[in-house]
């Protein structure tokens, strides 16, 4: 059984790329590694690198509010201290604070296992969280806040690579 760390998180700011989707509701299976479906072309790489410099990591999430067409928008970008140095062309997201269950993928040697294994591990973790952990735990998913993937320093190494999934929770 999964044993996440339950944390009280402060509000976080992220800036990066916004994407329109055809999804009308959050589904954990659709959420997992959605960035693999995206083309990161709306912001030049050098512009993104400038405001993302020094970031503790990147996040991928579906916004909780639907767009004008009734669909969810996807976001992928870097955590930032504030939006002060973020250009207008970048999408901005405020991740609300509160209680989160934080799950980590198994450590993986990318040189041996490869990217496909990493993506499959992330997908399996999302499934295990929503199909096994949450139903048996004292926590419910708080759909008013986004669940998100966090790719920090452990996702940028070839050995012992891992990432985290942050799931907003509330007591049952």
Write structural notes for this entry.
The protein has 172 residues and is of the alpha+beta class. It has one domain (5-171): Regulatory factor, effector binding domain (Multidrug-efflux Transporter 1 Regulator Bmrr, Chain A, Alpha-Beta Barrel). Strand 3 (58-66) and strand 4 (72-80) form a beta hairpin. The protein has helices at 28-31, 45-52, 110-113, 115-136, and strands at 5-9, 12-20, 58-66, 72-80, 91-95, 98-104, 139-141, 148-151, 164-171.
Short description:
The chain has 172 residues and is of the alpha+beta class.
SSE arrangement:
Elements: E1 5-9, E2 12-20, H1 28-31, H2 45-52, E3 58-66, E4 72-80, E5 91-95, E6 98-104, H3 110-113, H4 115-136, E7 139-141, E8 148-151, E9 164-171
Antiparallel strand pairs: 1-6, 2-4, 2-5, 3-4, 3-8, 6-9, 7-9, 8-9
The CATH superfamily label reads Regulatory factor, effector binding domain
Uncertain regions spanning at least 5 consecutive residues: none
Terminal CA distance reads: 19 Å
Radius of gyration: 16 Å
Number of strands: 9
**Structural class by helix and strand composition:** alpha+beta
Give the mean pLDDT. Answer: 93
Order of secondary-structure elements: EEHHEEEEHHEEE
Second CATH tier, the architecture: Alpha-Beta Barrel
**In which range does the helix fraction lie?**
10-25%
Counting DSSP H or I runs of 4 or more residues, the number of helices is: 4
CATH class: Alpha Beta
Domains (count): 1
Question: In CATH terms, what is the fold-level topology?
Answer: Multidrug-efflux Transporter 1 Regulator Bmrr, Chain A
For the report, how would you describe the main beta sheet?
9 strands, antiparallel
Name the overall outline.
globular
The portion of residues forming beta strands comes to 25-35%
